[in-house]
Amino acid sequence: MSDGEIRRWKLTEVEAYDGPEDRACHAWKGQTPRNAVMFGPPGVFYVYLCYGVHWMLNVVTGPVGFPAAVLIRGAGEVIGPGRVTKSLAIDRIQNQKPAQKSTGLWFESAKEIPDHEIETTPRIGIGYASEPWLSAPYRYVWHR
DNA sequence: CATTTGATTCACT
DNA sequence: GTGAATCAAATGA
């Protein structure tokens, strides 16, 4: 990534975190300096260090004032939130950066993927609050 | 100011 | 299968 090489990644596994009602979202109880970016405009990255070693790469999707984001759990052959960021050398430098070419990280439109190639499952890694509504199928996995 | 949490991963038994 | 690692921020005293 440092030599100007352009790498294209297919997002194969994502997870949605939508709104103040969603307790799995870090912003469920209000805005804080840490997750403030999720309250900002969409199209920017929310990079969050979890467990002291793993960076979580998110993309803000909701409008200003509404905390919603999508967690990139898998890209290309790399599966696992912490591994994706490691492969892309993403850290807090990318936090709050807009998803555009000038930041070195951006999205391009892909061809439509048929629904039958997408599997929806409950989210992962949020067992600390075993509530039923957390099992909402907000995880999307693309099966080639 | 001290303690707890956390959207995980890796090593070891 | 179980538990440790380890940084930053939120919460509580």
UniProtKB/TrEMBL annotation:
Which family, according to UniProt?
Belongs to the DNA glycosylase MPG family.
Q: Does the keyword Hydrolase apply?
A: yes
Q: Which SUPFAM superfamilies match?
A: FMT C-terminal domain-like
Q: Which organism is it from?
A: Cerasicoccus arenae
Q: Look up the domain of life of the source.
A: Bacteria
Keywords per UniProt = DNA damage, DNA repair, Hydrolase
Q: Which CDD domains match?
A: AAG
Principal EC category: hydrolase
User: What EC identifiers does the entry list?
Assistant: 3.2.2.-
Q: Which GO terms describe its biological process?
A: base-excision repair
Q: Name one Pfam family in it.
A: Pur_DNA_glyco
- Provide a Gene Ontology MF annotation, just one: DNA binding
Task: Write the protein's name.
Answer: Putative 3-methyladenine DNA glycosylase
Q: Which InterPro entries match?
A: Formyl_transferase-like_C_sf, MPG, MPG_sf
